[in-house]
What we know:
Layout: E1 7-8, E2 13-17, H1 20-23, H2 31-36, H3 57-66, E3 71-75, H4 78-81, H5 90-105, E4 109-113, H6 121-125, H7 135-149, E5 155-160, H8 162-172, H9 182-206, E6 211-223, H10 229-252, E7 274-285, E8 288-290, E9 296-297, H11 307-319, E10 324-329, H12 339-353, E11 357-363, E12 382-384, E13 391-393, H13 395-406, E14 408-409, H14 411-418, E15 424-425
Parallel strand pairs: 2-3, 2-11, 3-4, 4-5, 5-6, 6-7, 7-10, 10-11
Antiparallel strand pairs: 1-14, 7-8, 9-15, 12-13
Amino acid sequence: MAPNPAFSLGGCELGVATAATQIEGGRADTIWHRWAATGAAVDGSTPEVAADHWNRIEADADLMASLGIKHYRLGLEWARIEPADGHFDEAALGHYRRELRLLRDRGIKPLVTLHHFNDPGWFSESGGFAVEGSHEAFVRYVDRVVSEFAGLADEWITINEPNVFAYYGYRQGTWPPGRRSTRDMLAALTGMARAHIAAYERIHALQPHAKVGVANHLRVFDPAHVRNPLDRAAAASTEYLFQGAITRALCRGRFLAPLVQPRGVRPGTYYDFLGINYYSRDLASGPNLKTASKVAVNDLGWQIYPRGLADLARRYSALYPGPIYITENGTADASDAFRSRYLYDHLKAVADSGLPIERYYHWTFTDNWEWAEGQTARFGLVELDFATQERRVRPSGRFFADVIAHAGVTSDAYQRWVAPSRYRLNG
């Protein structure tokens, strides 16, 4: 007799996540708008179209509510709120105030991201987070935002994926600001960690009951050959350099080598929940990273590895105990051929983990402008026609709504949406 595929999520509540630059559309003077204007995205697209969410906040809130969504991680566009150094735009603040009210009126609790890869142009021109003292500008912005919205939001993510932003923008140079310097990368990591700590303290001074954290990008790094000591060492060192050291700085205020402890920053506890963005697994073979062969992959070639979500949550929560929020998890699947199975497998890993995972935010609500991939990578529960801006809930979106309604997966839901869903294997 086949095992029952149904399961309960227990105390874990589901939501969806987005980022301002990726969905709002229109013009804002961010590093991404400047970068995309040069044709740098793979398809030549820009974030000026995106999902036109800036003009459709009410309709999108209604669509979320129709799916039973009760938690929404949204981002603010710093460049709209502070278009010039020290100048705050009252109209932009009013727009976000209205959006937060729309969400609250529909029973949707916001988790607000203050920085999601989106440096304003003026901030980048001054050196961005790689410059000592950059945290002061960030805290000024945070102070204004939290003061304005304290009655509408009390959960905050200060910075999204500092390691990803620093690596691609300051080391590889394939993202803006387009630098290629290990020194600049380490400086930017230090600057973002210091900015988070300062923002954490300021938010709690303004809003003592707030919950504040970081959306940490965590990946599984395994040795390509488990019996090879060089591969084992490469996997361990890559994990430490990519995510271990920066997570320690962000959560505990301890800057271990190759980072340098900033003056005035004391070790302590600087998180109220452990935020985890999880997508994939890499194999370390000496100095190189690769994807395993004959494994399930998404449209971008990323390995689909559900057990890694629980493994990482267990490992990092042992270091940083407390509530866990899965602040992003999702997959690029334009045809929606396997997203329902992806959701099932990752939510099952959450349910079986025995860990205090209180939230799971799916990336993403609707198809968006996916950074360097432009409009080519489709992560949405809701399909978006970029030309007409028509939204259509995908079958995986219907499955997600059913999971929310039942606080878990029923046998009927499994048979309807998951059983027909199939992964594809790489070469």
